Amino acid sequence: MTKFTDLNLDKKVLKAVEEAGYEEPTPIQAGAIPPALEGRDVLGIAQTGTGKTASFTLPMITLLGRGRARARMPRSLVLAPTRELAAQVAENFDTYTKYTKLTKALLIGGVSFKEQDALIDRGVDVLIATPGRLLDHFERGKLLLTGVQVMVVDEADRMLDMGFIPDIERIFSLTPFTRQTLFFSATMAPEIERITNTFLSNPAKVEVARAATTNKNITQGVVMFKASRKDREGSEKRKLLRALIDSEGEMLTNAIIFCNRKSDVDITAKSLKKYGYDAAAIHGDLDQSHRMKTLDGFRDGSLKLLVASDVAARGLDIPNVSHVFNFDVPSHAEDYVHRIGRTGRAGRTGTAMMICVPRDEKNMDDIERLVEHAIPRLDNPMVATKEAPEASEEKTEEKPKRSRSRSRAKKSEEPKVEAEAEKAPAPAPEETSSEEQKPRRSRGGRGRNRDGGGGPTPMGMGDHMPTFIAKSFEERLADDAAA
Ligand code: AMP
C-alpha cells in the first residue's frame, strides 16, 4: 500500500495533508502524483469524488515550491468548467498551501475585474480560472501566459459539453509548449482524445474506476409516472416529489434535487418553499455571492434541500448528502452517475430517487445501459396513499403545509408558481446560458460537441405528438362522451 510519505511530496505539503486527516493516497493520487513530480504530462481519467483535485494540487505545490511569481505572469494555471468547481479547487489550494508562501488568484465571473487585476498585477504562483474569464483578462491585456510552467485542465469532458474546447485550445496555444500538462476527464470522448493527442506529450495515463457506477452504498429507485394531463405534468411531478421526500421521513437529513432546466430549478425550489419545505435553488444564472451563500448553507446544514442544475452542482464536494432526487431524468446518461454520486460519499450510505415520465423512457434506457443494471421501480407513494393526482384541476397541487392555517397565502402564492411555469418560454438548456458557460464562438472553432449536441435535448416536441399525449386526449374524449 502506497503511503503519502512514499510520494516525494514537499514536507510542508505532507504536513497539510496529515492535518486534513488523509491516511493514504487514493488510487488517482498514488497513480498521478509520481509522474507529475517527475515533470511528466499526466492524463487522469477519473471523476469527482476520487480525490483527483489533490492529485494535481499536491504535486503542483511541491513543484512550485522553488521560484518566485512575477507580475502578471502566473507560474501555473488551473482551468475548471464552472465557477463553483474553480472555487473548490481554490479552497483545496488554501488547505494544502497552508505551510508554504505560494500565492493564488481565482478568476471567475461574478467578481469584479478590478480586484482580480490587482491580484494578478502583484504576481501569482497559481491562477485558477474558468476559460471564458481567463480569456477576458487576457484580451484586456492584463495577463501573460508565457510564464506558465504547469497547466491543469480539470473536468475536460464537462468543458466539452459546455462548448469550451475552442477556448481550451486557444489557452493551450498561449502557454509555452514546454509547459507540463495535467489533464483530467471522467470520460474519453473522441474530441477529448484529439485534444490530448495534440497538446499532451507522452502522458502517463492513470485511470481509476468510476466510483458512482459501482457504488453499492447508494440505494437507487425510479417512479414511472404519467401525468393525468400534459398541462398538469409539472405540478403533478412537484406533488410526487413532495410525496417522495415525505416518504423518506427522518432518513432524509438533506437532499439535492436535480432538474434539467434552470427554469424548473427555480419553479421547483419556489414551490417547495411555498409548501413549507426548507429549499433553495442554485444554477448558473444566479450571481456568485448568492450561489456561494446557498452552498455554504447546504454544507453547514442550515439548508435542507438544494435544488440544482447539473452545471451548478457538478463536482461539488459536499460529503454528507443523504438523498438525491432526479426531478427529471437527465438527458445525458453520464449525468445520472454524476448526480447520484453526490450521495453515498466517503463510505456513507445514500438514496437516489428519480421521476420518469413517458417522454424520458428512452433516456432511462440509456442510463440503465450505462450503469449496467436495471434501476428498481418504486411504487408511486401518492397512489399508495390514495392521493392519485387525477382529481380535479384545483386539487392538482395539494395545499401548502403552511397555508393550512393561512389560506390567503396559498391563493396569492402557489398560482404564481404555476403561472410562471406556464409563462416560461421554451427554456434554454442549462449548459448554454450562464456567463462563463457560453461557448465563445467568436473565437473560432467548432462550437458545440459532436457527440451529443452540447446539452440536454430540448423539451419541445416540435411536430411530433407522442402517443401518450394523444392517448390521454382520446381517453378524455371518451370520458366526455360517456358523461
Ligand atoms: P475530489 O475528487 O478531488 O473532489 O475529492 C473528493 C473528496 O475526497 C474531498 O473531500 C477530499 O478532501 C477528499 N480526499 C482527497 N484525498 C483524500 C485522501 N487521500 N483520503 C481521504 N479523503 C481524501
Explain this structure.
- The protein is an alpha/beta fold and 483 residues long.
- It has two domains: 4-207, P-loop containing nucleotide triphosphate hydrolases (Rossmann fold, 3-Layer(aba) Sandwich), CATH 3.40.50.300; 218-397, Rossmann fold (3-Layer(aba) Sandwich).
- The protein is 40% helix and 12% strand.
- It is built from 18 helices and 13 strands.
- A seven-stranded parallel β-sheet has the order 3-4-2-5-6-1-7, sandwiched between helices. It has a six-stranded parallel β-sheet with strand order 8-13-12-9-11-10, sandwiched between helices.
- β3, α5 (113-122) and β4 (126-129) form a beta-alpha-beta unit.
- α2 (27-37) runs parallel beside α3 (52-63) and α14 (333-340) crosses α15.
- The chain is globular, with a radius of gyration of 24 Å.
- The model is unreliable at 386-398 and 401-483 (pLDDT under 50).
- The structure holds adenosine monophosphate (AMP).
- The site of adenosine monophosphate has 13 residues, from α3.
